[in-house]
Design goal:
Nitrilase/N-carbamoyl-D-aminoacid amidohydrolase; five-stranded mixed beta sheet; 2 helices
């Protein structure tokens, strides 16, 4: 079942020539569960996550294609966006096949915080 479609809002570098940029974020619903999707470079722009949280997302997904040398900064972006918005984020990354010469090595990340609204304390 297809719930909808989210276009990448911020194409990166040469993608501007081949990717149609989206203009808005979409909130998807499955039963009582609401989620939002940002695509790869969209994680760099905090307004993407903020808009999805304001719409009522329970979790955010940021599927990506991050080269090995960019993994550490990408992990930091995911952690900071999760912390700023008090929301879990699943960020899967691709793994290389033989055609990519090992430049994509996975290192997907899931960040979740337990936040107690009564005590206003958060744990990781």
């Amino acid at each position: 079942m297809i719930l909808g479609r989210q276009l990448k809002i911020h194409p990166f570098g040469p993608q501007h020539k081949v990717v149609k940029a989206g203009a808005k974020v979409e909130l998807f619903k499955s039963g009582n569960f609401k989620f939002g999707i940002g695509i790869c470079y969209d994680i760099v722009f905090p307004e993407v996550a903020r808009a999805l949280v304001k719409k009522g997302a329970d979790i955010l997904f940021f599927p990506s294609k991050i080269r090995y040398e960019g993994i550490k900064p990408w992990h930091m972006y995911v952690q900071v966006i999760a912390l700023e918005n008090r929301i879990p984020i699943a960020a899967p990354n691709i793994c290389s096949d033989t055609n990519n010469n090992g430049i994509y090595r996975g290192k997907s990340i899931f960040v979740d915080f337990d936040y107690d609204h009564k005590t206003r304390k958060m744990t990781r």
